[in-house]
Amino acid sequence: MPLQTFRYAACGGGNMMLGLSIYFILFNFVFIHGYVTLGKFAFESYNVSLFFSSSTSFIVGFLLNKYIVFTTSYLKGRIQLFRYFLSFSTNLVLNYFLLKLFVKILHMDEFLAQVISTGICVSLAFATQKYFTFKQDTAA
User: Fold this and answer.
1) Which of 105, 103, 14 is nearest to 50 (CA)?
2) How far is CA 27 from the centre of its chain?
3) How far is Cα 54 from Cα 71, in angstroms, rounded to an integer?
4) 3-state secondary structure the chain
5) Rounded distance between C-alpha atoms, residue 66 and residue 81, angstroms
6) CB of 65 closer than 8 Å to CB of 134
7) pTM for the full model?
8) Are the CB atoms for 79 and 69 separated by under 8 Å?
9) How far apart are CA 99 and CA 102, in angstroms?
10) What is the rounded CA–CA span in Å between residue 140 and residue 136?
11) Residue 99 · residue 47 · CB < 8 Å
12) Residue 35 dihedral angles phi and psi, to the nearest 5°
C-alpha cells in the first residue's frame, strides 16, 4: 500500500470517526430524535446533526489532508481550501440526499444510515482530493 494511501486511510478514518461521534452525540443527546426549529423552518434532527458534525469534519479534514496526506501538492493553500470546500460541499449534498433516502424511503435507523452514506461519500472523496483538491506534480 502506498504511503499516501495509508495516510489518507488513517487520517480519513480518524476524521470519519470524529464526525460520526459528533453526529451520534448530537442526534441522541442534544437534538433527541425530533425536529429542530430555526425561525419559521423545521428540520429533522438527523439532518441538523449532519450539518453540525460536518462543520467540524471540514476543518479537521482539510488540515489533516494538507499537512499529512497530500504534502507534495504544488497548489497554494487558499486554492486548496477553495477546492476542498467544493469537494466537501458536493459530498455533503450527496450525504444529505443519501441520508434522506435511507431514512425516509428505506426506513433505516438514522445512525446506521449515516454510517452507510458516509462510507459511500468517503470513496468518492479520495479521488476528488487526490486529483483535484490537492493536485500533485506528476513528476513527484
Assistant:
1) 103
2) 16
3) 23
4) CCHHHHHHHHHHHHHHHHHHHHHHHHHHHHCCCCEEEECCEEEEHHHHHHHHHHHHHHHHHHHHHHHHHCCCECCCHHHHHHHHHHHHHHHHHHHHHHHHHHHHHCCCCHHHHHHHHHHHHHHHHHHHHHHHHCCECCCC
5) 9
6) yes
7) 0.81
8) no
9) 5
10) 7
11) yes
12) -115, 150
Chain segment 10-59, per-residue pLDDT in tens: 998 999 999 999 999 999 999 887 888 888 888 889 889 999 999 999 99
Q: Which residue has 455533503 as its cell numbers?
A: 92
CA distance 10 to 14: 6
Three cell numbers at 25?
452525540
Closest CA to 44 of 26, 18, 59: 26
**Integer distance in angstroms from the first to the last C-alpha of the chain?**
17
Q: Is the dihedral of CA 81, 22, 96, 115 positive or negative?
A: positive
C-alpha cell, 56:
467540524
* 72: pLDDT strictly greater than 70: yes
Residue whose grid cell is 513528476: 139
Please, which residues bridge with residue 73 across strands? Answer: 136
